């Protein structure tokens, strides 16, 4: 049985997140953007006004304890285990072609992908139950567990943020962290310590060739 964990009592994150309750708390580059609308919808219950055009891309985990606070006609959504976009870069390209210029990444506490070492054998058994051979199931899970596993939810969000920023340098990306206990989005404290302006104008071919 999954229970809703409280991030407030989780020492791991206590000092690593910043509250987002007013416009003053929102980084200037996100103010007045669909990112701000998304944050206030989640944290304050403010309704999102839609323009009829896609305004935002949201990437988050498949986690069933987290529900997105968005109406129709507002955002594209990529939901994958751990919330990372790895392997779905083409989808990002597609949303760019539809006019999207803002990406929100939502990490969360108590992610199953941080416990994959202990969960992987159950995934193997579940696939065997589907008629897969043990050998094929083990090889498949081993290969994909490496790609999906994370050691720390907040650190994984940071690494994926930096990776996406280097691949899509003109996209405004907001790394956010949701607490499953109260459903509030918070800003990772490391965001304010990073160099915000990227002078990148072209992306190296090698980086693109290495994409899965
Ligand atoms: Zn998760």
Q: Could you walk me through the main structural features you see in this protein, from its secondary elements to its overall organization?
A:
It is a single chain. The protein is of the alpha/beta class and 212 residues long. The chain has 2 domains: 9-111 and 150-196, Carbonic anhydrase (Beta-carbonic Anhydrase, Chain A, 3-Layer(aba) Sandwich); 112-149, no CATH class. The protein has 6 helices and 6 strands. It has a 6-stranded mixed β-sheet with strand order 1-6-5-4-2-3, with helices on both faces. The two termini are 34 Å apart. The mean pLDDT is 91. Bound molecules: zinc ion. Zinc ion binds next to loops.
What keywords describe this structure?
single chain; 212 residues; alpha/beta; Beta-carbonic Anhydrase, Chain A; 2 domains; 6-stranded mixed beta sheet; 15% strand; globular; binds zinc ion
Q: Mind describing the biggest β-sheet?
A: 6 strands, mixed
Bound molecules: zinc ion
Provide the low-confidence segments as ranges. none
| Helix content class | 25-40%
**CATH class descriptor of the largest domain:** Alpha Beta
Q: What fold name stands as the CATH topology of the largest domain? A: Beta-carbonic Anhydrase, Chain A
Summarize the structure.
This protein has helices spanning 34-44, 89-97, 116-129, 134-148, 153-167, 205-209, and strands at 17-19, 56-60, 75-79, 102-108, 172-178, 185-188.
Topology at a glance:
Layout: E1 17-19, H1 34-44, E2 56-60, E3 75-79, H2 89-97, E4 102-108, H3 116-129, H4 134-148, H5 153-167, E5 172-178, E6 185-188, H6 205-209
Helix pairs in contact: 3-4
Bound molecules: zinc ion.
